[in-house]
Design brief:
The complex is a heterodimer of chains A (883) and B (89). Chain A is of the alpha/beta class and 883 residues long. Chain A is 38% helix and 18% strand. Chain A has 4 domains: 4-249, Spore Coat Polysaccharide Biosynthesis Protein SpsA, Chain A, CATH 3.90.550; 255-383, 3-Layer(aba) Sandwich (Rossmann fold); 407-587, Rossmann fold; 627-878, 3-Layer(aba) Sandwich (Rossmann fold), CATH 3.40.50. Chain A is built from 30 helices and 28 strands. In chain A, helix 13 (421-431) packs across helix 18 (555-567), helix 24 packs parallel to helix 26 (767-785) and helix 25 crosses helix 26 (767-785). Helix content of chain B is 67%, strand content 0%. The chains are: A alpha/beta (883), B mainly alpha (89).
Chain lengths: 883, 89
């Protein structure tokens, strides 16, 4: 059975290697083979390694050939069909299921090929060394994270995501990827070989990813720390090689020069937009230049932003994005796009004047759209929701909580008149008493109003019976840790007078915190839908801004919502946590960035995009099928008939003693009892069953399922070609992909109303439920086999033309390279398929298909579903629980 | 800085066609050289010339000088929370 070769490259530094191996062997599963490549060590490594010989395979090289050729020697030593996992010897495996999760990511889509993981350094505070990297043509400095900095671990990037490159300290490489592009390029000795590999993979449509569920520890440069001069020389040589191959191509990927006019500091919300968007636009192929209008003490903590600040060009930008009304006049570009929001019902006249030269104004919501129109703005205005950064803001961010478990309200303020901190504190004190387990934490952010805010708060009357208010003044906090701050509290309070965009409000919701906010302005829709809204009591004129009106929050309403948030804290907290992820998905900043790029494209600001490489398919690899056949089909679709037919072609279904026979299919299911049981356990472990399929599964359920099935497949392997068949495999076939070698999927389909009628007759299912199940199973099955070799058999065609359909199936399997088949005699085919079951007599009554079911069946009927384009499958990923 | 000081710096800046913040940097550099005993008239004139040229580095340094330290010397949230909530909070 196919597994994975875990290749550890060692060169001296035996204590590191020993620690690595001990932790690796403690976590390695039985299907994995550990191969240690001793790259010509001269210390005690060879001798010490020999003591591990019973548990690892040792490949000894005569001298140090460098990382690339050492790893290539390990790849060459791996079993021919195994995937490989490249591992440095300075790793520590602190997560038991790391391999299973890397496999999940590797096989989640057919075009996936290279998977890395989160890597932490050895520091006590937990620094993130790698979370997926990129390289900019400007400086060819390979960054190891989106920010380019070693941030503290705040559980950033928890999801699997595509990246330009992964560090080959840990790299899971699928066998079909290796077969497509080969091993590492020996033009590199060490360094840059990983980025080169990922870019070569991308050239043929193979994606590189980081599995955010996996975190390992990497004592970086442990293997070469003996000689830092040597390392620097290697680095310089490899960089030169990389530059010669890729620099021009990386430059050519740029579709436009785009200026971002804005700030990284004040106002905070505009600075946040720069941090959120500049790196994302740059990563999307726009060469971003950052025009800071006033000199700023840079604290970008973002290499892309800093690079954008350093970029200078005499050419006029293809587009200029001016973020904030104060920057509109600075925007110089062929197309001029503004991004702005105000605090009032209508924005200042001066803003409209300065915006007149813009080709387009983007605002975050309908309130801002109306505020510009109310001031007389006539330029095109569109809504671009700004979104939240799900990579940093989510409910699982680790943080410090109140030591005695008090309920904590958090407010972050930086403008005295707008943020009404005095109203906030006064109302809080009026609402709660000191004896209650509740606190208000107010952060006064550094800035122009900091002293005034502090003075206003100090002037408020206090008494010993007041509930505790803590003020954090004079602290500037690191941006990447902002979710830690929000997660330290139970509720975020944004009871402002101003109606501008408050990024903290959406971020708090994405972090699973309660939101209490004024029902006014840009936060209004959010708080109405997800939080506790505080009604404004009256319109008030903004001080120093004649004729500009905002809203005074109603203090009694505010007090009532504070009280409600506290009194119902258990229920509300659970609700907030439960919807955090869905909120993040619906308000994802990456969707906003995509929309912004699309919008610039519609303005003709971008060069025509280069056609991306066609996504890789495992079936692209020119090797014939191995003789492993997986029969997929919904219950009551004729899978038993087809499996029996395959058995008559010489395909081994398992020994008779291991096959199920049941009353609903007296001629035999051709279904392994052990596989059936494994599928039942898998669905049950995820909280569902065949009639109520679970949308997700805990990792341990997937690992246990793989382990169960692997043992079964071991019994089949000596008798290829073999088949496995179980209707529930439609739901879980993807999880078996790492175990299979160039399989063929045989999809058995039947008209959905016939399936539903049969299910109604056999199981008493409601027809609507039965049809929904058919759709769910069918979409999941075709999604799992997308990109792999597959064949479709229509049960109705088989019954109408048994001989012709059987011959076509046989011919197709032979064409795909399945050896050992024989075409059954006509009499044998007819005998097997004669007098099928009562299925043909079953009727459904007057139930119509849903449009999505119609579309799915149409794609099956004309075989479009086999096209691998993905469009037909797209809705499958969004289909949750069926029925 | 009191009002007369501010006026004096503004006047000096106008005289050399520089920004007041450039002068602050020039003064800081001159003070450092003076401490080291290295401030001769030629160096002093060079410092003033550089201040008047409005070098990007001088601008950045002035921005840093005039900015509250907490807004660029950023702290870890864990440290801030430990300060807010000591174990006996």
């Amino acid at each position: 059975m196919r597994g994975a070769a875990l290749i550890v490259l060692a060169w001296n530094q035996w204590p590191l290697t020993q620690r690595c191996l001990d932790s690796l062997l403690a976590s390695a599963r039985s299907e994995a083979e550990v191969i240690v490549v001793d790259n010509g060590s001269t210390d005690e490594t060879p001798t010490a390694l020999a003591t591990y010989a019973a548990r690892v395979r040792i490949v000894t090289l005569p001298e140090n050939l460098g990382f690339v050729r050492g790893m290539n020697a390990g790849i060459a030593a791996a079993r021919p069909d195994d995937d490989v996992v490249l591992l440095n010897n300075d790793l520590v495996f602190t997560q038991g299921d790391w391999l299973g999760r890397l496999r999940d990511a590797a096989y989640a889509e057919p075009e996936h090929g290279v998977v890395g993981c989160r890597l932490l350094g050895p520091e006590a505070e937990g620094l993130v060394y790698h979370v997926g990297g990129y390289i900019e043509a400007d400086d060819l400095h390979g960054e190891q994270s989106e920010s380019g900095y070693q941030e503290r671990d705040v559980a950033q990037y928890p999801r699997t995501r595509r990246v330009q490159a992964v560090a080959f300290a840990v790299a899971y490489i699928r066998r079909d990827c290796l077969e497509r592009i080969g091993g590492l390029d020996p033009a590199f000795h060490s360094y840059f070989e990983d980025t080169d590999y990922c870019l070569r993979a991308a050239d043929v449509g193979i994606a590189s990813l980081v599995a955010g569920e996996v975190t390992l520890h990497h004592y970086q440069h442990g293997s070469t720390q003996d000689d830092s001069g040597f390392r620097e020389r290697l680095f310089a040589q490899s960089r030169e090689t990389f530059s010669a191959r890729w620099r021009e191509r990386l430059c050519a990927l740029r579709s436009a020069e785009v200026d971002w006019c804005g700030t990284t500091r004040f106002p905070y919300a505009e600075a946040e937009l720069a941090r959120l968007f500049v790196r994302r636009l740059d990563a999307r192929g726009l060469r971003m230049r950052f025009d800071v209008g006033v000199r700023e003490a840079s604290n970008a903590e973002d290499r892309r932003l800093e690079l954008a600040m350093r970029r200078r060009s005499p050419t006029v930008a293809d587009a200029a994005i001016a973020c904030g009304a104060g920057t509109f006049a600075r925007a110089r570009g062929r197309r001029r796009v503004g991004i702005a929001y105000g605090e009032w019902e209508r924005v200042p006249d001066a803003w409209v004047q300065s915006a007149q030269g813009l080709d387009l104004l983007l605002v975050p919501d309908a309130f801002q759209h109306e505020a510009f129109r109310a001031a007389g703005a006539r330029m095109p205005i569109e809504i671009l929701p700004f979104g939240v950064d799900r990579d940093y803001c989510h409910a699982a961010v680790p943080t410090r909580r109140h030591p005695r478990g008090h309920f904590v309200f958090l407010a972050i303020v930086d403008e005295l008149a707008r943020d009404a901190p005095d109203v906030l504190v006064e109302t809080f004190r009026r609402t709660f008493r000191a004896v209650e387990p509740v606190e208000l934490l107010v952060q006064i952010r550094p800035g122009r109003d900091a002293a005034a805010i502090r003075a206003a708060l100090d002037a408020l009357p206090t008494s010993a019976s007041d509930a505790r208010v803590r003020v954090l003044d004079g602290w500037g906090l690191r941006w990447h840790q902002r979710a830690q701050f929000l997660c330290a509290a139970d509720a975020y309070v944004s009871v402002r007078r101003g109606g501008g965009w408050d990024p903290n409000a959406a971020e708090a919701l994405a972090c699973g915190r309660q939101l209490i906010a004024t029902d006014f302005g840009s936060t209004s829709r959010l708080v109405r839908e997800y939080g506790l809204a505080v009604a404004p009591t009256r319109r008030v004129e903004s001080p120093g801004q004649r004729g500009l009106w905002w809203a005074e929050p109603d203090r009694d309403a505010f007090a009532a919502q504070l009280r409600r948030a506290f009194d119902q804290r258990t229920v509300l907290a659970e609700r907030a946590r439960a919807r955090a992820d869905a909120f993040g998905v619906a308000h994802d900043i990456d969707i906003s960035a995509d929309r912004l790029v699309e919008r610039l494209d519609r303005e003709d600001a971008l060069a025509p995009a280069r056609a991306p490489a066609r996504p890789h398919r495992p079936s692209d690899v020119a090797r014939k099928a191995s003789g492993q056949i997986v029969v997929l089909g919904m219950h009551r679709s004729g899978t038993s008939s087809v499996a029996g037919l395959l058995a008559r072609m010489g395909v081994h279904p398992g020994s008779d003693d291991d096959l199920l026979i049941g009353p609903d299919n007296p001629k035999g299911h051709y279904e392994l009892a052990g596989l059936h049981d494994a599928c039942l356990r898998r669905l049950d472990a995820a909280g569902g069953d065949w009639k109520d399929p679970p949308a997700t599964a805990p990792a341990r359920a997937i690992d246990a399922f793989r382990s169960d099935v692997m043992a079964l497949l071991e019994t089949l392997e000596p008798q290829r070609p073999w088949l496995i068949k179980e209707p529930r495999l439609c739901l879980v076939a993807r999880e078996l992909l790492p175990l299979l070698t160039r399989p063929v999927f045989v999809h058995v389909v039947r008209e959905p109303r016939a399936v539903a009628a049969s299910l109604a007759a056999r199981d008493g299912l409601d027809p609507v439920h039965a049809l929904a199940l058919w759709e769910h199973y069918t979409r999941a099955a075709f999604a799992a086999s997308r990109g792999w070799r597959r064949v479709l058999v229509d049960y109705a065609e088989l019954m109408a033309d048994p001989l012709g359909t059987t011959r076509r199936l046989f011919a197709e399997l032979v064409r795909l390279g399945v050896d050992g088949l024989r075409l059954p005699a006509d009499a044998a085919i007819e005998d097997w398929l004669r007098a099928p079951t009562e299925r043909t007599r079953e009727t459904l009554g007057d139930v119509a298909l849903e449009p999505s079911q119609h579309a799915l069946w149409a794609a099956i009927a004309d075989r479009r579903i086999l096209d691998d384009g993905g469009a037909v499958h797209a809705t499958a990923e969004r289909t949750g629980r069926a029925g | 800085m009191n009002e007369p000081d501010a006026d004096r710096i503004a006047g000096l800046a106008r005289a050399i066609r520089a920004q007041p913040r450039h002068l602050l940097i020039a003064a800081a550099r001159a003070a450092r050289l003076h401490e080291q005993g290295a401030l001769d008239p030629a160096r002093q004139r060079a410092i003033v010339r550089e201040a008047a040229a409005g070098l990007r580095e001088a601008e950045d340094a002035a921005a840093l000088l005039l900015t509250p330290i907490a807004s660029y010397a950023q702290a870890h949230v864990a440290d801030a929370l430990a300060c807010v909530w000591p174990p006996d909070a």
